[in-house]
Amino acid sequence: QVQLAESGGGLVQAGGSLRLSCAASGRTFTTYAMGWFRQAPGKEREFVASISWSAGTTYYADSVKGRFTVSRDNAKNTAYLQMNSLKPEDTAVYYCGADPNLITIATMGNLRSWGQGTQVTVSS
Q1: What distance separates the 2 farthest-apart alpha carbons in the chain?
Q2: Which one of 7, 12, 105, 124 has the lowest number of neighbouring Cβ atoms within 10 Å?
Q3: Residue 107, number of CB atoms within 10 A of its CB
Q4: For 35-66, b where at least 16 C-beta lie within 10 A, e where not — what string?
Q5: How many CB atoms are closer than 10 A to CB 83?
């Protein structure tokens, strides 16, 4: 099992960019698919993006396609979420998650590991 820690959140104006990082501890990072999720106040947690262990397959929620890019650097045990053209409705706590099964992440199943979350606030 891996332990996850997100960073990179903050306050940004609409139209701006942020890059979130998810640092993983443990020697099995390269066997895990990674995902990003978010939870806005008063709403349920939702899927944002996911990436396979090899980075060969990615999935995105329709609401972020063309604006967000998920990537990973297995040598650094880190996954990233580049967020461009941010909108106020992107405001949420962003979480990363890990699971050996990419489908489990894409369908928000019972993931093996979760980070503690990082706040992203987009002002209008």
Answers
A1: 42
A2: 124
A3: 11
A4: bbbbeeeeeebebbbbbbbeeeeebbbeebee
A5: 26
